[in-house]
Amino acid sequence: MKEVIVIAHRGASGERPEHTLESYRVAIEQGADYIEPDLVMTRDGVLIARHENEIGGTTDVADHPRFADRRRTQVIDGETMTGWFTEDFTLAEIKTLRARERLPDLRPRNTSFDGRLEVPTFEEILDLADAENRRRGDGGARLGVYPETKHPAHFRALGLALEPPLLAALERHRCGAGGARVFIQSFDPVNLRMLRGMTKLPLVQLLEHEFGDLREVARRADAIGIAKALATADAVRAAHAAGLAVHVWTFRAENEFLPPDLRVGAGAGDHGRLEEEIERYLHDGIDGFFTDFPSIGVRARDQARR
Ligand code: G3P
Ligand code: CA
User: Fold this and answer.
1) 138: CA distance to ligand 1 center in Å?
2) What's the gap in Å between 137 CA and the centre of ligand 1?
3) What confidence tens digit (pLDDT) does each residue in 123-165 have?
4) How wide is the angle at C-alpha 99 spanned by C-alphas 13 and 119, nearest 5°?
5) Alpha helix (H) ranges present in the chain?
6) Residue 109 per-residue DSSP state
7) 3-class SS at 250?
8) Which domains does the chain have, with CATH numbers?
9) Which amino acid residue places its CA nearest to atom 10 of ligand 1?
10) Model's pTM, two decimal places?
11) Which of 6, 50, 51 to mutate to test the pocket of ligand 1 (most atoms within 8 A of CB)?
């Protein structure tokens, strides 16, 4: 039977503030096959894990008077954004901040961790993965990392290209070569073409709205990471025919993110029947999925194996 991988989306982000070592640690404990850091860059060229380079939404930066004058407005990938941006901070400054729950209304329990957890570097995440793989020893399946390049064109224009330090870090930790398993993902086809010329590690084209020409996608990627709305059985078959594995995002337990027939209770943050939702997609032959709740993901995957 083929392996279906469970990817811990931003760590166990349903249960801890996203993109913190604690979030990744819980994901590993829950049996995730891969942990997923989204990557952006500091002013001094260090890769850190954040979903976007604007950090007002997921850290306490607004509470630091000495950083008040760093707040600004800029256009990133065609979108006007106002806030505090990682490229304006050194790593030492980033390390004075603490993470905050992105979705406090839906995930109020996670706010008890607000103010306690640092923004991790990619290096620290790879160290965590290495420690887990050492613990497993030679016999066990390798824990994997599934990094995503965020705003690669923006950072390249600033002279802070993400790709060289990303690949150097993966090589240093022997990822894909005896160390952690790895997939590198991006929404940006230009970024993937660039990476294709730089590494033999498996690449994933993220797609949200449409597939385009899958044979063309297969020239720059080994897999597609697709939004749930795109993941029909026909689409999975077509991707497989083009030689692409299919990973689906993002599975979340809260009613807010579930189809109406799987919701339980009235609150948007109440948990519904996520396991059943995942089972529907497993039935269509997907090769992996991203979830904020790795424990539920592992249970659903293992149940479907039987
Ligand atoms: O990387 C897969 C999925 O995470 C893409 O969405 O916005 O959560 O990075 P996002
Ligand atoms: Ca991501």
Assistant:
1) 31
2) 30
3) 999 999 999 999 999 888 999 999 999 999 999 999 999 999 9
4) 90
5) 21-29, 91-94, 122-136, 152-157, 163-172, 189-196, 214-220, 233-241, 274-283, 294-305
6) G
7) strand
8) 5-52+118-305 (3.20.20.190)
9) 51
10) 0.97
11) 51
